[in-house]
Amino acid sequence: MQANRDAEPDGDAYQPLREPTRPHLSFGAGLHYCIGATASERQLAAVLRALAARFRPPEPAGTVRWGPPAGVQGPIEVPVRLNRRPASGR
């Protein structure tokens, strides 16, 4: 399955009244590419590096909840459990 495509055989067909089959999240493409995408990606990379240094890999702790499909769209809740790494003896 490709990103941002429905699983249906006509997944690329324009059907504005079709109910979404899964949440959509992207920075857009081409002329509509988000002007802040690079800054967002760099900030996220810095946060993930800091978390990886301090915690073990996160574990799922519930169900992801998505916001309504209007305007800026994305998850509104992503429950995870973080466990600290043991002290390194500094």
Can you walk me through this structure?
With about 90 residues, the protein is of the alpha+beta class. The protein has a domain of about 50 residues. It is about 20% helix and about 10% strand. It has one helix and four strands; from the N terminus they run αββββ. It has a two-stranded antiparallel ribbon with strand order 1-4. The chain has a two-stranded antiparallel ribbon with strand order 2-3. A hairpin with an 8-residue loop joins strand 2 and strand 3. It is extended. The chain starts with about 35 loop residues before the first helix and ends in a 9-residue tail after the last strand. The mean pLDDT is about 80.
Shape: extended
Distance between the termini: 47 Å
The residue-averaged pLDDT reads 79
**Class from helix and strand fractions:** alpha+beta
In terms of per-residue confidence, which ranges show pLDDT below 50 for 5 or more consecutive residues?
none
- Per DSSP E runs of 2 or more residues, the count of β-strands stands at 4
Into which percentage range does the β-strand content fall? 5-15%
Return Rg in Å.
18 Å
- Tell me about the largest β-sheet: 2 strands, antiparallel
Give the SSE string: HEEEE
Range of helix content? 10-25%
Total of DSSP H or I helical runs spanning 4+ residues:
1
Spatial order of strands in the largest sheet: 1-4
